[in-house]
């Protein structure tokens, strides 16, 4: 996925690129550092030396975020507070700059000197070390750790083949961003803010809030330089000045997830498949660029003059766009008239793609009980300070009002943040970033800038069914070569 600069409620650097050896690694073999790469030096930021008799727990950062100076200051404060209040456990915080953190951690694990806790890390970033994470379920049961304060859908995101590998911490639900003024200008009703509500069409009839409805109103909201919309005779698709709808296209898997949860890996974990909902999504996305013209084509999307930050809604030239809450870091570019609405349904099924970060424990830890105590401290007493510096929406339900209040304080326009919170109950599970064989190589096909992502965005007139067949065969070939098929 594209970079997500760290602002309030925005994730700092996206999913780390996965080392190539990951595709063929197993639970007993950690991924090796990339060939020829030298591990970045580990920087001990806080903790000092454990006293005699203390259990030393190493917290490793920064696979996804946390290495900015202002974040390090907070992390140091958090560790100092823990060490001052605990006499049996000592925490050492190790920060490696994001660019080298993945390889450095692989080297540590490969040498048998891995840390105890890793994070913050996203779902995709954690897949670089699939099979290395501790199942927390026994410790949750042993300590009676209360999960009832978290949305069940967020808890379930971390229930994988490895077990309950995480507890929710920072979440980034998705919503439909839209510009009110563009709707008002042509007399359209604003999109519904409540899941399940219908939409009033221009002729007064009520329609289900789904992608068929999006298609119809997106064309009305797409305008060329002569002022004609995409439904009118003489509309010029070569000179569009306002687009009606933009999908979240960082990753074709994520784009597909808005139509339905799924995976490129079949149940056996080694057979490539393309979910039918994703095919529907990808056809909609392709037609939106080349047939209906309400989404930017690749050349327009890649233009630094038209789309300088990589997210079209930030330009103020897009009426509707699906994205995660971390994208609020750049939404000021859309003006002061934007708001959030419900993600549309695919037929009768609604899915709001979901991003999340948390801390994980490596199963190689020699002190699981003590590591879990530190983990619950990071998720509990230290969570507010860490969430603020990481820019995360609190996963814990009771803390969400404070998070929303902090977010609203950044904007002049009143935003319906509850829509995004409601989207949590529609989170995709399995998550689109879930593990698959040859993870990094497969992303080279379907990720940001991937082979098929680029081809579909830049080539008109493709037979999409043939494209799906070709993609599936190419994925399977990669997995077979990596030993995953």
Structure in a nutshell:
The chain has helices spanning 69-85, 98-110, 123-126, 137-143, 152-156, 180-185, 211-220, 252-257, 276-290, 298-301, 368-379, 383-390, 400-408, 418-422, 439-446, 451-458, 464-481, and strands at residues 43-46, 55-61, 89-95, 117-122, 159-160, 163-164, 170-179, 199-200, 206-207, 223-224, 240-246, 318-324, 338-341, 345-346, 349-350, 354-361, 393-394.
- Radius of gyration (CA) equals 23 Å
Structural category is alpha+beta
Q: Which CATH architecture of the largest domain would you pick? A: 3-Layer(aba) Sandwich
Let me know the number of strands.
Answer: 17
Largest sheet: 11 strands, mixed
Oligomer: single chain
How many domain units?
Answer: 2
pLDDT averaged over residues: 89
Shape: globular
Discrete helix count: 17
CATH topology of the largest domain: the name is D-Maltodextrin-Binding Protein, domain 2
β-sheet strand percentage: 15-25%
Distance between the amino and carboxyl termini: 25 Å
Low-confidence stretches: 1-40
Report on the structure:
With 485 residues, the protein is α+β, with helices and mostly antiparallel strands. The protein has 2 domains: 20-171 and 355-414, Periplasmic binding protein-like II (D-Maltodextrin-Binding Protein, domain 2, 3-Layer(aba) Sandwich), CATH 3.40.190.10; 173-354 and 431-481, Periplasmic binding protein-like II (D-Maltodextrin-Binding Protein, domain 2, 3-Layer(aba) Sandwich). The protein has helices at residues 69-85, 98-110, 123-126, 137-143, 152-156, 180-185, 211-220, 252-257, 276-290, 298-301, 368-379, 383-390, 400-408, 418-422, 439-446, 451-458, 464-481, and strands at residues 43-46, 55-61, 89-95, 117-122, 159-160, 163-164, 170-179, 199-200, 206-207, 223-224, 240-246, 318-324, 338-341, 345-346, 349-350, 354-361, 393-394. Strands 1, 2, 3, 4, 7, 10, 11, 12, 13, 16 and 17 form an 11-stranded mixed sheet that branches. A two-stranded antiparallel sheet has the order 5-6. Helix 1 (69-85) packs antiparallel against helix 12 (383-390). It is globular and about 80 Å long. The protein starts with 42 loop residues before the first strand and ends with a helix.
